[in-house]
Design a protein that fits this description.
The chain has helices spanning 2-17, 48-67, 85-96, 111-120, 140-145, 166-188, 204-210, 223-233, 256-270, 275-281, 283-297, 301-324, 338-354, and strands spanning 37-44, 71-79, 99-103, 125-130, 133-135, 154-156, 159-161, 199-203, 238-240, 248-250. The chain is an alpha/beta fold and 361 residues long. The strands form two sheets. A seven-stranded mixed β-sheet has the order 3-2-1-4-8-6-9, sandwiched between helices. It has a three-stranded mixed β-sheet with strand order 5-10-7.
Amino acid sequence: MMLSASGLALHAWWALRWDGLGIRKTSAQAGDELPDTCSVVVCCHNEAPRVAGFHEALHPALNHAAALGVHVQVVAVNHGSTDGTAEALEALRECAGWTVVHQSRTRPSKKEALEAGMAAATGQVVVVTDIDCTPLAPGWLEAMLRGASAQWDVCVGLSLPGRGAGWLHVLQQLEAERSAQKAVGAVVRGRPYLGFGRNMAFTREMWTRVGGMSKHAHVRSGDDDLWLQEAVTLGARVTTQTSAAAQTASSWPATWEGWRRQKTRHVSASSVYPMATLARLALPTVGTGLLAAGVVHNPSGTSVLCAGSALLLRAVTFGLFLHQAGRPSLRAWTLLLEPAVGLFRSWSWWKGATTDSTAWK
């Protein structure tokens, strides 16, 4: 009984504190000021087939920002591509006025590409994204930029998977939405630790204060997470946007092996998180272990009720978050598949611990 009660208490505390009951939908307010200048930085490695589509998808957001008086510079970094990416980007330099940077690839992560892009960026505020991401609304930049400098130094946006089919897509969608829920909850509670390089904004002043990526250049991944954590230690004011207008839709690996390689890279970043953060993130797992132990040790109606109540509470908070993010709240049922995602994550960790990971793209 004590094991089940303790597990339920842990899950209830997590739901109330971190998982969504205290989260409210956040969106840009019309009264929040916009910066005069902004740079959109996108890094590319062998992305020739995507360049034209990204340009077309970004155009409405650029026009919307221009209509509001924001001058937007697009900085595209060709990170050692061996296909036609360089030529595709040069064509956009000519016809669309993009700033194009060619950076040789000397290490597997995206960090040097991002730093090269930042060196060429001139905007007061920088929005980073990937070329396989699509803004969901023309007001994307407006939503990500309002209040910059005056109210925040870093804005954590969301980038969730676009349309797809099959169990691979279902699990990727669950992984992305749960990660987004954790990121937003941490920001709301004043403990930011998780950002998304597919959709994040920050002031140039904060980038300079942190010193770019220099302090974690040796880590294969974590360009966004580790940089955000360093910014927080320096007193960065962090906000988040959950409205659909501030989101991008992202493309995820189309194969299980591709997703495994992606997860392996991400694990390389989490391994250098602060111990306090890792301990906090382990609490739901501890709670689940206590609930399972309670059912096994004393398979009574009370222990089963505690386990069911914990699952229901987590599903409700997940559904509330999905609603706030403009996603179908009834998809909260996929939370039942979270153990499968956990197993996949553990396998990815094991592969990363025993073999070298691939590059960021």
